[in-house]
Design brief:
Alpha-Beta Plaits, alpha+beta, Uridine Diphospho-n-acetylenolpyruvylglucosamine Reductase, domain 3, binds flavin-adenine dinucleotide, globular, single chain
Length: 453
């Protein structure tokens, strides 16, 4: 079937089974098809060429960044699929410290961009825990968040301009490089969080900020999980917005200490990892006020004073998800619900109760400062009954989340794994409008079909 490949002139492709298998999964538990072909274009013109070629043959097109997605978005759903991987497009095209923008190809790795910007005294706030691996194109397509979202917002708040390739191969530039812009419908917004269902994002211009002067990291230990949950809105009430406010429950802390110990207390029910950034005297004053509040809620405070101990803590925080995968007797279903802050404490207690009643361990961690909790349901490995029970809990947790005014995904998206639950969240009319928008950009429904809807 691929004997006319030479027409693609210079575009790297593979149809070797070993290669194709690597592109049939991502970081979720989603199972899909092995694609027929994988292509690695090196620039936007090549993306356009290969996309057009695939469309002319009726192949389903699956855009892919680094495959760290947690919802199966980059997993082919249909047998006749081509994966278009952006991983060879890793050029930082322009850092503009005068306009506070950076323009990158979509395959640039988030963490590498952060380091490049530091040299210029600049700062790109969105920092998913996968930042050492995930791509900017993937971040835009999932509207990725991260610990710093509480103060700085999510990817959407930084995307200024994108170049996209549609299924028919046409190239569109959407958005612009000015802070303010009111020129018709802002179509770029539709592509942010669209999980590759509208087109392939090939170039991205992001807003960046000057690097903050200083950072203070506080470890807040609580013997009572509910008190930790209640303490969070009270910290916010001070009028202080921390740059991160992460929650780790006891099982999470124990997991870190059993896999890569860093001396965390294991006899507490919850730990908050809080960071402040800004002018040094100002954040020291803020830290003092926070310590007062935390003590009122029965918490104990530790300060990570130097860069090394701070990095150690973040390394531990980022290791939770990979550690969960290493459990020999358990498999995980992870979901990332988001609840209004005033229902956070409630939600944490409900999750604990659900776990106790079902005898299935549930490990919670995440960006509690913005109400986004990563819930990991650990069913017994190779145990069908336990697995079924695990998925029943997913449904129950989503129902609870929606009833509390929350969202079934705060940052990972719908992809394949949450598709069965989307109607819990969205009305039929809402879904119909979304689908109609998809068909405007992708009338033949070849662009990442089988995702979201
Ligand atoms: C350990 C771990 C920690 C994580 N922590 C976080 C976190 O803190 N916050 C968070 O938000 N997420 C987190 N994630 C999830 C994941 O890293 C993000 O969703 C990330 O944005 C995916 O980027 P990627 O390059 O790996 O995209 P992929 O997984 O390759 O793709 C994700 C989706 O985007 C689409 N896509 C990718 N690139 C493009 C493109 N150029 N054009 C069009 N569509 C495209 C794909 O089709 C797919 O639907 C974590 C994942 C892991 C494994």
């Amino acid at each position: 079937m691929f004997k006319d490949m030479k027409l693609l002139n210079g575009i790297e492709i593979s149809d070797i089974k070993e290669d194709l298998i690597c592109y049939s999964y991502d970081s979720s538990y989603a199972k899909g098809h092995i694609p027929e072909l994988v292509a690695w274009p090196k620039n936007i013109e090549e993306v356009s060429k290969i996309t057009k070629w695939a469309t002319n043959r009726g192949l389903k097109i699956v855009p892919r960044g680094a495959g760290t997605g947690m919802a199966g978005g980059a997993v082919p759903v249909f047998p006749r699929s081509i994966v278009i991987s952006l991983e060879r497009m890793r050029q930082v095209k322009e850092i503009n410290p005068k306009n506070f923008t950076v323009t990158v190809e979509a395959g640039v790795i988030n963490g590498e961009l952060q380091k490049d910007l530091q040299i210029h005294g600049l700062f790109y706030p969105p920092d998913p825990a996968s930042l050492d691996y995930c791509s900017i194109g993937g971040n835009v397509s999932t509207n990725a968040g991260g610990p710093r979202a509480i103060k700085y917002g999510v990817t959407r708040n930084y995307v200024m301009e994108i170049e996209v390739v549609l299924a028919n191969g046409s190239i569109l530039t959407l958005g612009g490089k000015t802070v303010k812009r009111v020129v018709g419908y802002e179509l770029k917004e539709l592509f942010i969080g669209a999980e590759g269902t509208l087109g392939i994002i090939s170039t991205v211009t992001l807003k960046v900020l000057p690097e903050p002067e200083e950072v203070i990291t506080l470890l807040l230990n609580f013997h009572n999980l509910r008190k930790a949950g209640e303490c969070i809105p009270n910290i916010m009430k001070l009028g202080i917005i921390p740059r991160t406010l992460e929650l780790l429950d006891q099982s999470c802390i124990k997991l870190i200490e059993s896999h890569a110990p860093i001396g965390l207390k294991t006899d507490i029910e919850a730990m908050l990892l809080l960071e402040l950034d800004g002018e040094i005297n100002s954040i020291k004053r803020q830290a003092d006020l926070i310590v007062e509040i935390v003590r009122k809620f029965g918490g104990e405070v530790q300060v990570a004073t130097d860069y090394y101990s701070r990095e150690n803590l973040w390394k531990a925080r980022r290791s939770i998800s990979p550690c969960l995968l290493k459990m020999s007797d358990r498999e995980k279903i992870n979901i990332d619900i988001s609840v209004p802050l005033d229902n956070l404490a409630n939600t944490l207690e409900i999750l604990r109760k659900i776990s106790e009643e079902s005898s299935i361990p549930i490990i919670c961690f995440g960006h509690a400062g913005d109400g986004n909790i990563h819930v990991n349901i650990l069913f017994k490995r190779n145990h069908e009954e336990s697995r079924t029970k695990g998925f029943e809990l997913v449904k129950k947790i989503f129902e609870t989340t929606v009833s509390l005014g929350g969202a079934i995904s705060g940052e990972h998206g719908i992809g394949i794994t949450k598709k069965p639950y989307i109607k819990m969240q969205l009305s039929q009319k809402n879904i119909e409008f979304m689908y109609a928008i998809k068909k405007v950009f992708d009338p033949k429904e070849l662009m990442n079909p089988g995702k979201i809807f």
